[in-house]
Design brief:
Number of strands: 3
Largest sheet: 3 strands, antiparallel
Helix content: 40-55%
CATH class: Mainly Alpha
Radius of gyration: 13 Å
Shape: globular
Distance between the termini: 27 Å
CATH architecture: Orthogonal Bundle
Order of helices and strands: HEHHEE
CATH topology: Arc Repressor Mutant, subunit A
Length: about 90
Amino acid sequence: MDQNFDGKTFNEARDGERLGKQLETVKKTMLDGQWHTLQELSEIARASVAAVSARVRDLRKAKFGGYNVERLYVRKGLWMYRIAPSAGSVAA
């Protein structure tokens, strides 16, 4: 997987390893097919909610796997996210 992050303020030497670790942690967690809040992912990845939200968006990009990230409205602005189980897999 190409972990070539981008953006106006991105600096590979400063940010590359940190963002890569965040992405891998969020991806590994979400590949369980279960629903997760950004707060939960934030605690697991030891990153801010804003950073985790960005990593969830990254997972949708082709260069980061092009995953089908689903979202589910819970209540009062609370959403949950998961990577959709692939076709042919058995959801728990």
